[in-house]
Amino acid sequence: VHETRKIMHDPEIKITATTVRVPVFCAHSEAVNIETEKKITAQKARELLEGAPGVEVMDDFHKGIYPTPIDAEGRDECFVGRIREDDSVPNGLNLWIVADNLRKGAALNAVQIMELLAH
User: Fold this and answer.
1) Which CATH number fits domain 26-118: 3.30.70.3040, 1.10.760.10, 3.30.360.10, 1.10.240.10?
2) What are the distances in angstroms from CA 47 to CA 12, 14, 56, 57, 84?
């Protein structure tokens, strides 16, 4: 929670988090709930995410397609699925996000930051 507030430069941002340790060989997985000022439909969120660099959308509820740690293993992308509107709040979205923490969470991020600083 503190880290997100620091990154967003917003000490007042309302965040809740729960950490769960599960026996997987790689990857971090997150169930993310977002509430925005203006409504963003699940379809619009999906379109925005599909155009984002480093993001791969795997989202077909009816076919049982959503990202798992196995999908992320050894890959640089962040995988997003289960994109849906959250009816419990006026402008809410729910997402499931998976990334290989050994790549995206550590080594790759360091390389990408160095590349940005070099330009």
Assistant:
1) 3.30.360.10
2) 29, 26, 11, 9, 13
Q: Which residues contact 16 (CB under 8 A, 6 or more apart)?
A: 1
Q: Which residues sit opposite 92 in a β-bridge? A: 35, 86
Task: Express as a percent the part of the chain with pLDDT over 70.
Answer: 92
Count other C-beta atoms under 10 Å from residue 42's C-beta. 16
CA distance 79 to 50: 10
Average pLDDT over residues 80-87: 94
